[in-house]
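Q: Hi! First time doing this. I have a protein sequence and I read that you can turn it into a structure. Is that right? Here it is:
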Amino acid sequence: MLILRRTDVQETLAGRETEIIELVADAYRLHDEGATALPHSTFLRFPEKSHARDRIIGLPAYGGGSSPVAGMKWIASFPGNVAAGMERASASITLNSLENGRPTAFLEGSVISAKRTAASAALAARVLTEQAPPTGVVLVGCGVINLEILRFLAAALPELREAVVHDMDPARAEAFTGTCAAEVPSVKVSAVADLAEALGSHPMVSFATTAGEPHTDLSACAPGTTVLHISLRDLTVETVLGSVNIVDDADHAVRERTSLHLAELRTGNRDFVAASIGALLRGTATVDRDPGRPVVYSPFGLGVLDIALAEYVREQAARSGRGIAVDDFLAG
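A: Yes, that's right. Below is the predicted 3D structure, encoded as structure tokens:
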């Protein structure tokens, strides 16, 4: 068993944005080909009112192809951590041998989770704006995920030069601009306190918030805006139904009271979903952009991305000697 701490994972993945985006693209292609196994995620919630917003999610997954991998991510989301000066999410990932089922690695998973999420967003942005790459982006929610999304967008979209950030806490947004400037110096970042003003700033928007219920529409956006709806619960049902919707997997994204799930409950169908990102990558589907309608990418975040990236980290770390090998983790 190889145990990889957060620093091991961070050092292994530093500066590898382009590689990670391509790894995520390969995983989506495999999924669209039917070469993955992805049971529905398990949501562990708690009966106490004090934990009403908290949850822990289990994502088991298998990815086939030339280098098959199996494992599970166990990720906790405790929004109250932010006010206490801690990160909202924490995670661990276990990988299992496909020869005998035994665990081969145990990894700190929040870094992997954030980077695969950002890579998915950047990949979709590249695919969906291929004809007219944006020079600016609006980031709604000033946390770890949107920081990583900005980093990966800068790698995927060389024309990107500006970012406007918005958060319910203006002080948090101002502090975030400094972090972005240090981490992604190629992009000029400014904070805007008014959400509507922010949404109208650029033709690409990334929502990465802790919203539990829909709270906004896209009426303030320019026609044809590309929206990376990463947190899945920001947009109203009417907005979803008025958009061209792309998902990673409809069976996963249209559940657990996401904005898309609420749209399904309203209409009784999923006809509002136009295509999956895997189908777009493989050319088995296309998107006809309507200049008057936004294109909204709502990825649930498939576990196969986590285990594919975790296996990549395990391989690279083993070569470089990172991590702690525990040879007697299992008896015998």
